[in-house]
Amino acid sequence: MTAADTPLWLFADQLGPHFHSGDHAHRPVLLIESASALRRRRFHRQKLHLILSALRHTAADLGERATLIKADTYTEALSRHRKPVLVHEPTSFAAERFVERLRAEGRVAEILPTPGFALPRADFRRWAGDRTRFRMEDFYREQRRRFEVLMDGDQPVGGRWNFDTDNRERPPKGRTTLGAEPPYHPVEDEVDAAVRRDLDALVPDAVGADGPRLFAATAEEARAALDRFISHRLPLFGRYEDAIMGADWAMAHSLLSVPLNLGLLHPLDVVRAAEDAYRDGAAPLAAVEGFIRQILGWREYVWQLYWHFGPEYLANNALDAHTPLPRWWSDADADAVTAACLRDALAGVRDRGWTHHIQRLMVLGSHALQRGYDPRALNEWFSTAFVDGFAWVMPANVIGMSQHADGGRMATKPYTSGGAYLNTMSDHCRGCRYDPKKRLGEDACPFTAGYWAFTHRHRDRLAANMRTARAVSSMNRLSDLEAVLEQERLRESF
Asked: Which residues, at least 6 apart from 195, have a Cβ–Cβ distance to it below 8 Å?
């Protein structure tokens, strides 16, 4: 039995009230800034800023209840603290091993289940059973039933579980922006100013640009960001969630992945707020269902699969992809890229450490898949260059969904396309040097030509898959295939 006065040690992604209030409201709280952890990998500058800002703001908000220790390592900080601590389950295999070692040494008194997700890990294990392939749709429906979200009795509201077909509209013609109300923007304070000074000294070689903090770093800011999204942006979210607009980086997306992944918001609070908007007539069902699918479905699913697949999942490389990441990619050097869609996505990473999910999957991910970038290296890049990237977030998204490196455990086909898709779903192609209709020549679209090179490279695997067999048949009818393959073999610029 853990003593009532045992301090609660919170990691930097466990900062919301649901971690330190309720049954733990009486406990002192320990927070640690580890300089070596900040320097261990090449993170985006704004990601480091968010983490330190969130830690320091949490310490300030908790007042005398909190102790913030700045040290080179966590071990050093715990030695200075001297008292055994209570912890919640951490969010990575490495952190889990570390905490288990600390418990064996007597520095951690007890490890509690995390309150940061809706579904306990043990419940997912029972649901997964002996499955070898997983469908998010099955999991999502079970989540809806379990938590009684968007349900009328035992049936889904509106008679449908899935409104994806209503949420695939292309960018509106004749407009450069979606016209949604702007997202919540936090106001930096003296804490952020101090963080910026410290990072200048501590981590001079971070990825990306420094810039004003765009995402919530406190529980109060997170709630304000949620309220802003639900009240002003959710109604437009669904219809255009798969579209890309070059002059509108945020469109109607929630921008809540950062405060969610810092543990500042509980996912069920987010889901209930969206459902209430539908019940109150403030947002259409398709938009609300699409958003809830992302939180209660996909986000929870990715978290659970991280633990279910295990650390060996990162070694998957079913497509035998080994191309090192180019330097312009690792550095998010958008100025080195000509293709408008790829340049814009990399600029989003450079300037904000964030792009929305379609840019991640169908621009960045599709390019990497076509060019055979090493999936493990790509996973590392997504984990460190994105402000919402944590160890648990990216493997199922990158290794599985984006790169098909798991051979189909996550997705039934590789997700890539030629320029025609990007021309339909974005406004980039009109002003691009490359022509999405061309696969050969100086103005041949790298995505169009790259699609056929990818299809040829994996033709046997794709021909055996009923969802991709037609692509192989189409490729076999191309009269200029050999010239396209040689062009892409020699391509050095994008």
From this structure: 49, 52, 53, 56
Please indicate whether the domains covering 121-195+217-309 and 315-490 agree at the CATH topology level. no
Range 315-490 has CATH code 1.10.579.10: yes
Residue 1 pLDDT: 57
Asked whether the whole model's pTM tops 0.90, one would answer: yes
Residue found under tokens 């189409």? 474
Predicted local confidence at residue 294, as pLDDT:
97
Nearest to 415, CA basis, from 354, 475, 370, 380: 370
Across 371-383, average pLDDT: 98
Q: Are 419 and 448 in contact (CB under 8 A)?
A: yes
Mean pLDDT, range 242-250, rounded to an integer: 96
Fold of 8-112: Rossmann fold (3.40.50)
**Which structure tokens are listed for 57?**
């703001």
Which residues have CB under 8 Å from 334's CB, separation 6+?
Answer: 343, 344, 346, 347, 349, 350
Q: What is the pLDDT of residues 247-288, one digit of tens each?
A: 999 999 999 999 999 999 999 999 999 999 999 999 999 999
14 three-class SS: coil
Q: What is the DSSP string of 228-270?
A: HIIIIIHHHHTTTTT-B-TT-SSTT----HHHHHTTSS-HHHH
DSSP 34-57: EHHHHHSS--BHHHHHHHHHHHHH
Beta bridge partners of 339: none
Beta carbons within 8 Å of 335's beta carbon, 6+ residues apart: 343
Q: Which sequence spans correspond to the domains of the chain?
A: 8-112, 121-195+217-309, 315-490
Given CA atoms 398, 186, 40, 116 in this order, what sign does their dihedral have? negative
Which two three-digit tokens encode residue 1? 């039995």
Q: What are 9-67's pLDDT values in tens digits?
A: 999 999 999 999 999 999 999 999 999 999 999 999 999 999 999 999 999 999 999 99
CATH assignment, 121-195+217-309: 1.25.40.80
